C-alpha cells in the first residue's frame, strides 16, 4: 500500500512538473501574472510529492519489503539499519530518485526564497528547473522505476556491495548530488537570462550563492569519496583518476571557475557571456558525470549500473539540454554588453587567467576521460588513459594556478600596480621558499615534488594571511571586523594550500613495507617496531572477520594497538580489507592484514603515510571558506546598495 | 533451518573463494635487490590490470596481475631496461594495458590538446582584456535606466 502511494506520488510529481514546465514561462512571455504565479506552488508541490515517494521507498528498505524488486536486489535483513537507509541510494533507481528529490528541493527553495526576484525571471527560472525535472522524472518512471514489484517475494534479499557498506561512502552520494544538482540552479538562471536577454549585477548576485553552495557540497562530496578510497580499498591511494572520480571533478573545476567569473559580473559587469557559458557547461558536465556513471559507458571500480538503454536516455537528456542551451546562447550571447572596463593589470585580468586555467584543466580531464572511447570508435585502438597521463597533463595547470593565485588575490579592481601588489607578498614568498626547502631537506628522498608542493602550498597559505593582514590595514582590531567574504576567500585559498602540502608530502614521502609477519615476531618500519600479536575470527552482523591485533612501538614506547581486519561478506561472497589507521597530524600508520601463508604467519602490509590527512583537512577548510563567504550574503547585498546609491548620487557613469 | 544451511553453504563457498584471489603485491614476489624492486614498482604503476576496472597491476587482486608482476620482475632480472619491459608486455597484452598512452598517432591529440588549448585561451583572453581596456577610451556607456535603478535600490534595501 505504502509502495503504491510512493509510486503514485512519483507519477503525480511528473504531472506537476509538466505543468510547471509550461505554464509559468508562457505567462512570463505573455505577461500574464496569474500564469507566472503557478510556478511557486507547483515547485513546492513537486518537492513534497517526490519527498513522499522517497519516504515510501525508504520505508520499504527499512522494513525489508522484498516484494519490491529493488529492495530484494539491494538489501538483506541482516544488514545494519544505517545501511538499510543508505541502501536507498546505493543503487541506480534509488539514487536517481534522490537526484530528483534534490532537484525539486532546489526548485522549491528558489520558489520560497526567490520572493525578491523579478517575477518574470523567477517564473522562467522555475520553468527551466521543471524542464530538467520532467526529463529526469520521465527517465525514472520509464526506465528505472524503483517501485516495481515481484510476484512472489523471496525470503531474503541479495544484499548490498560490501564496499558500499561504509559511513564514508554512505554519505558520499547525497553530497555529490547536492553539488551536481545545485549547479542546475545556475543553469536555470543562465537559460532564463538568455530568454530574457539581459544579464546584470543583480543576476550575478542571485546566481553566486547557488553556485557557491553547489561548490561547497561538491568539495565535501569529493573529499568524502577520496577519504573512503584511502581507508577502504586497502592500499591508501586517495585519488585514482578513475572516470567516476573525474565525473565529479570536472563540475567542481567548472563550478570553481564560475564562482570566480560571477564575481566579475557582479562587481564589474564584465565577462557576462562567458559566465553564462560557464553556467551551462558546469551543469552540462554534471549531466555528463551522471551519464558516465549511469550508463557504464566507461567502466570503473565505482560504477554499479550499466544498462545501454538508460545510457541512451541520459545521453538524450544531455544533448537536449546542453545543445538547446548552447543554441540559445549562440543567438543571444551578443546581446550581453559588458560595461566594466579595466586595464591589463587588474583583478579582472587575474580572474580571467583563473578561469582560463580552471576551464582548460577541466578540458584536459574531460578529454583524458573520454579518450579511450574516442580512440576505440574513431581510430580502432583499444587503449587506457590513467593516472600517469593525468599526473603529467593536469598538474602543470595547478602549479601555475597556485603560483599566481596569491598575487591575483591581492590585485585591486580596474587597475593595479605590480610593485604595490607584489611588495607586501615578499615575506610570504620567502617564508614559503624556506618551508619548501625544509621539506626538501627533511624528506628522505630529497624529492623535488616535496619541495615544489610544499612551497606552493605554503605560498598559498602565507599569501592568504598576507592578504587578510593588508585588507585590515595591518591592524588586529580591524582584522576581526573584516567582512566574512574576505575571510571566506582567504580561508578557501589557504585550504587549497593545505591540500597541496598534503598531496606533495604524501606522494613524495610514503613508505611501504610488505612482508610475512609471524605471530609475536616484531619487525621495524621507519623506526617503528610493529608486532602482530594475534589473529582472531570474529563474527560481525553480516560478515565474518579475521581480526589482527598489532602493536606499534617507537623507542620502546607503545604508540598504539591496531586491529586490521580481513572481512568476508557471505551473502555477496566477497572479501574486503579493513585497514587499521593510526592518525596523527604529521601522518598515518596504515596496516593491512593479508592472507595466512603456507609456512606460517600472515602477509602484512605497512604503510607510513606522511601528512595524509592534510589532503582532506584542506578540502574541509576550502568548504568552510565557501560557507563563510556564503554567510556574508546579506552584507554583500547591503554593500552593493550603498555603492549604487553613491554612484547615483554622483549621477555620472562609473568610468 | 533452511536459512541456516544456506548460510553455512555460502560461508563455505566464500572461504573457498577467498583462497583464490591473492591480494595485490605478495611478500613472495618481492625481489631481493631493492633497486630492482623499486624499478619493478615504477613499471607496475603504468601497467593496467587487463581484467579489472581501472586498477594498476600493483593494486589489483586478480591472478593475471600477479602473473604480470612476476613477468615484470623476470624481465628485470634478465637485464631488460624499464622501457624494454614495458614494450615486452605491451607486445603481448596490447596497448590496453598501458596506463600512460603512447605519444604516437592519434594520441598526440590527447597529449597536446591541453597545452594547445591553454595557448589559444591565453591569446583569446589577451584580446578580450585588451578590448576591455580599449573600451575605456571609447564613449561612456549608458548605465542602468532610472526604472532599473529604482528596482535595484528596492532590492538592495530589503
TrEMBL record, chain A:
Subcellular location: Cell inner membrane
Record field: transmembrane: 6-26, 47-72, 96-116, 128-148, 175-195, 207-229, 249-265, 274-292, 312-331, 352-374, 394-413, 425-442, 448-469, 490-511, 614-630
Ranges of residues in domain Cytochrome c assembly protein: 89-295
Cytochrome c-type biogenesis protein CcmF C-terminal domain residues: 315-633
Membrane topology field: Multi-pass membrane protein
Top-level taxon of the source organism: Bacteria
Major localization class: membrane
InterPro entries for the chain: CcmF_C, Cyt_c_assembly, Cyt_c_biogenesis, Cyt_c_biogenesis_CcmF
Keywords per UniProt: Cell inner membrane, Cell membrane, Cytochrome c-type biogenesis, Membrane, Transmembrane, Transmembrane helix
Family, as annotated: Belongs to the CcmF/CycK/Ccl1/NrfE/CcsA family.
Function summary: Required for the biogenesis of c-type cytochromes. Possible subunit of a heme lyase.
Name by which UniProt lists this protein: C-type cytochrome biogenesis protein CcmF
Organism: Thioclava sediminum
Native organism taxonomy: Bacteria, Pseudomonadati, Pseudomonadota, Alphaproteobacteria, Rhodobacterales
UniProtKB/TrEMBL annotation, chain B:
CcmH/CycL/Ccl2/NrfF N-terminal domain span: 14-156
Keywords (A to Z) from UniProt: Cytochrome c-type biogenesis, Heme, Iron, Membrane, Metal-binding, Signal, Transmembrane, Transmembrane helix
Keyword Zinc-finger set for record: no
Family: Belongs to the CcmH/CycL/Ccl2/NrfF family.
Chain positions covered by the region annotation Disordered: 137-158
Keyword Signal: yes
Biased composition (Basic and acidic residues): 147-158
Naturally occurring in which organism (per UniProt): Thioclava sediminum
Transmembrane intervals: 109-129
Annotated protein name in UniProt: Cytochrome c-type biogenesis protein
Function recorded in the entry: Possible subunit of a heme lyase.
CDD domains with a match to the protein in the record: CcmH_N
Signal peptide: 1-24
